[in-house]
Specification:
The chain is mainly α. It has two domains: about 1-70, Winged helix-like DNA-binding domain superfamily/Winged helix DNA-binding domain (Arc Repressor Mutant, subunit A), CATH 1.10.10.10; about 85-220, Four Helix Bundle (Hemerythrin (Met), subunit A) (Up-down Bundle), CATH 1.20.120. The protein has nine helices and four strands.
């Protein structure tokens, strides 16, 4: 099964870093190479690497590849651990995880999953204020994570969501275009187009970065 291959790829990379076969600053095999080695699509390779990227062990550089940042002794936060971060840090974490989660969901979502995502989308579009919007937006992203049927990806999504929930977003207003982003993401999921779903999530998060950059956000007291 594809999920088993994802775990196998992750363990392969993990052991290579742990043993020193791939040292700090060195480049991982390319997505294409790992996909060929394990006979999986490149989306499965991305899903395998995302947890290592989220943990700060590797870093993906667009157009260059993925490099080892730290030895395996460094661990990701536990699911019940409080994580405080700036809005920019949180959006960086989301950019590292959400597009890959979206990509996997496009390939694995059931009809029931898609229905749940659509219900969350309807609530996002009906939101009347920032608090209501944020709550339903979080549910939308969690529904996508659950559609991966991967418990680790669901937990990664939950860690980011808990941190987002502790942020005070000031006077950032709801943006009509943001609703449109959510619908475009959902349409890509419905089409089972993993690459399109990933790209639309990237565009959505890039827009959120622009909004945050123009507002001062402070942690809740």
């Amino acid at each position: 099964m594809k999920s088993e291959r994802v775990v196998l790829i992750r363990e392969h990379v993990r052991k290579a870093i742990e043993s020193g076969a791939i040292g700090v600053g060195q480049k991982l095999p390319t997505e294409r190479e790992l996909a060929a080695q394990f006979d999986v699509p490149r989306s499965a390779v991305r899903a395998a690497i995302v947890p290592l990227e989220f943990a700060g062990i590797v870093k993906r550089e667009v157009g260059r590849g993925t490099y080892v940042l730290a030895p395996m002794a460094r661990q990701a936060p536990q699911g019940d651990e409080e994580v405080d971060a700036s809005p920019t840090d949180l959006l960086d974490a989301a950019m590292s995880c959400y597009p890959a989660i979206c990509e996997v969901a496009a390939l694995r979502a059931t009809r029931a999953d898609l229905q749940a995502i659509e219900e969350c989308l309807g609530r996002v579009e009906a939101a009347r204020d920032n608090e209501e919007y944020r709550r339903h937006d979080a549910a939308f992203h969690m529904a996508i994570a659950r559609a991966t049927h991967n418990r680790l990806l669901v937990e990664l999504n939950a860690v980011i969501d808990r941190a987002l929930g502790r942020m005070h977003w000031g006077d950032i207003e709801l943006i009509e275009g943001d609703f449109h982003d959510h619908r475009l993401i959902f349409e890509a999921l419905m089409k089972r187009n993993a690459d399109l779903a990933r790209r639309r999530m990237v565009a959505h998060l890039a827009g959120a970065r622009m909004v945050v950059a123009s507002h001062a956000a402070a942690p809740n007291p």
